[in-house]
Write a structure and sequence with these properties.
6-stranded antiparallel sheet, 629 residues, Transferase(Phosphotransferase), domain 1, single chain
Length: 629
């Protein structure tokens, strides 16, 4: 769709992104002259209620927000069958690209970026929107340093009735929260957890949890502790570490309950104030009474020591029982916790990616995972017949076994009916074909008195035939019709007039036929095409003139070629005053090492006044006048 104007307002200039549901273009708003990003729902999904609903939910979520740290929605609408969203265009990089390029970010810079992410989330949460996919790939760093949170494509309105278990969309596995890993619903604290993960990655240059597959990473979110930040980045202040680790608490109740609170503590950490810093709770430890030192000097001290020793024994016995009971409780809890976790992962599955696989292989993979496969076939210009172009749910999402998985399978390039092009101008016909995606177009000119010049006479394939973007189309276009007059025996002046009257042109090279008859000198001896031939308008006619040596008119001129280290092509041509025909007299190449000036002799075809032009590499460099005789 690039180079197309959408809704008579947005000129799409280039494709800058492509997802499973939509294509994103850079565009120019013709009303304001500003660059914008236009997200267009893929045409094959215009009639699919599920995809239309997802697209509308994104528009609904975006429309509730206007914030300087969010890629804001500017417009939404339809152009024909095309549904589109118009967003701010951000010129820059993703935060992920910045981290990959620079490695660890300094603590002040990381905190400043995190504060801006939290500012965007606070605005979204206040409007009832949970992002659910906070990750560095969705954080845009503008060229001027501004931070923008993007892609609310899987966001949900927190109080929406559509937020059911079957409608849950998971975030990216390295950044989603433990409750998302368990398949539960996400809320504002889930976004805060993901922000903590992003902050950890900015500070250390690596994600806190990684593994060979999504399940392994999800298990770490549930149970593992990350490598301490101080081990990877010793320069990070403890106050910043505390904020990050509180945001990454596995229990949502122990995290920050609002983005505003986390941002406030990050600011306090930057300002080295302690009044807003979180107080990390120390684990409750069982502390035994500490016995006094015995004093052997007096019997009173000795008796006191004996009583203390007896108390110690009683306390040790009590704590031994308590320890055994606590260990038993822990073991029971661990048993049931592991059993619950195993039961969860026995009944759920993480969706793999089968995009670009053939339909049979993709179906087999999903069936082996205990999922119900639904096939929907759609045309697609980018995928061969039988390949999966999209899957719903997307790769990385966790679903219950037995859940349906929809695979969109390509039927190949979109089939269309060849339009009726006869009678259209060639430019209109070519534009129409290109709008259909057809680019292999050849044009053949044909003589026609019936069709006006530059009008399509016929096309192959014919109108009504089934075509796609790879079809080769041949257009037969009218070049009009001209009838070649009989020029033999005419003077060159007369021949020029007849050719012009019949809408023809001349071949610039004159041929000569020698004759001893001085009366024939300068008359047309032959022509191509022959007289009465039906040819295209503006067809070039080649002439042969009789030449009697004793009547040949010659002119000498000095041609000066411009200085150059390269060879220069020289052409010397003459044109009679008042005529439109230009005749080439001499053509040669002036070598770089040769002299710049050269005397040339021209053979002038008749006695008229002429203007002589010297062309050097196609550019007119000299002009001479040749007088009439």
């Amino acid at each position: 769709m690039s180079d197309r104007i959408l809704a008579d307002r947005y000129r799409l200039t280039e494709q800058i992104g492509m997802g499973g549901m939509a294509i994103v273009y850079k565009a120019v708003d013709l009303r304001t002259g500003h660059n914008v990003a236009v997200k267009v729902l893929r045409p094959e999904f215009n009639e699919d209620a599920e995809f239309v609903s997802r697209f509308q939910r994104e528009a609904e979520a975006a429309s509730k927000m206007t914030h300087h740290n969010i890629v804001n929605l500017l417009d939404v609408g339809m152009d024909g069958e095309n549904r589109y969203l118009v967003m701010e265009y951000v010129q820059g990089k993703t935060l992920k690209e910045v981290i990959q390029e620079r490695g660890k970010l300094s603590a002040p810079l990381a905190c400043q970026i995190a504060i801006r992410i939290l500012s965007a989330l606070e605005h979204a949460h206040r409007n009832g929107i949970v992002h659910r996919d906070i990750k560095p790939q969705n954080i845009l760093v503008h060229a001027d340093g501004h931070i923008k949170v993007a892609d609310f494509g899987i966001a949900r309105i927190a109080d929406s009735a559509t937020l059911t278990r079957g409608d849950m969309v998971m975030g990216s596995v390295h950044y989603f929260s433990p409750e998302q890993a368990r398949g539960e619903g996400a809320n504002a604290t889930s976004d805060i957890y993901s922000t903590g993960i992003v902050l950890y990655e900015m500070l250390t240059g690596r994600v806190p949890y990684d593994g060979e597959n999504p399940v392994a990473v999800a298990m770490q979110h549930l149970h593992a502790q990350p490598v301490p930040i101080q081990n990877l980045a010793p320069d990070v202040p403890p106050s910043v570490v505390q904020v990050c680790m509180r945001a990454m608490e596995k229990n949502p109740a122990l995290r920050y309950q609002s983005a505003r609170d986390m941002a406030a503590d990050l600011r306090a950490a930057l300002e080295e104030r302690g009044d807003r810093m979180p107080q990390m709770e120390e684990p409750q430890e069982i502390r035994q009474p500490v016995p006094h030192l015995r004093d052997e000097k007096t019997s009173q001290d000795s008796g006191r020591s004996k009583r203390i020793s007896e108390q110690e024994r009683r306390w040790k016995a009590i704590w031994r029982v308590v320890s055994i009971l606590a260990a038993a409780a822990v073991a029971v809890g661990l048993f049931y916790g592991i059993r619950a976790l195993l039961n969860h992962y026995e009944t759920t599955v993480v969706i793999p990616s089968v995009v670009s696989k053939d339909k049979e292989s993709a179906t087999e993979i999903m069936v082996n995972l205990g999922l119900e496969v639904q096939i929907k076939e759609v045309s697609n210009d980018d995928y061969a017949v039988g390949l999966v172009i999209m899957q719903v749910p997307e790769a990385g999402e966790t679903v219950q076994k037995g859940s349906p998985v929809q695979l969109l399978v390509s039927t190949g390039a979109k089939k269309q009916e060849m339009p009726i092009l006869a009678g259209a101008t060639s430019s209109d016909a070519i534009t129409l074909l290109k709008n259909m995606g057809i680019t292999q177009i050849t044009t053949v000119m044909a003589v026609s008195a019936e069709f006006a010049p530059d009008t399509v006479i016929s096309c192959e394939p014919a109108a009504g035939a089934t075509v796609d973007k790879d079809t080769e189309v041949k257009l037969t276009v009218s070049g009009g019709e001209a009838i070649v007059p009989d020029l033999r025996g005419m003077t060159l002046t007369e021949a020029e007039e007849y050719v012009m009257e019949n809408h023809l042109t001349f071949n610039s090279t004159l041929n000569f036929v020698d004759t001893d008859d001085p009366e024939k000198h300068g008359l047309v001896a032959g022509q191509t095409p022959e007289s009465d031939a039906h040819v295209l308008l503006q067809t070039a006619v080649s002439l042969s003139l009789y030449r009697c040596p004793e009547r040949v008119r010659q002119e000498k001129l000095e041609v000066t070629v411009k200085e150059s280290d390269a060879d220069i092509a020289v052409r010397v041509a003459i044109q009679a005053v008042g005529s439109t025909a230009e005749w080439t007299c001499i053509s040669y190449v002036c070598k770089a090492e040769k002299g710049r000036s050269q005397m040339v002799t021209l053979e002038v075809p008749d006695n008229r006044a002429y203007v002589c032009t010297v062309y050097q590499d196609g550019v007119a460099e000299q002009r001479f006048e040749i007088e009439e005789i």
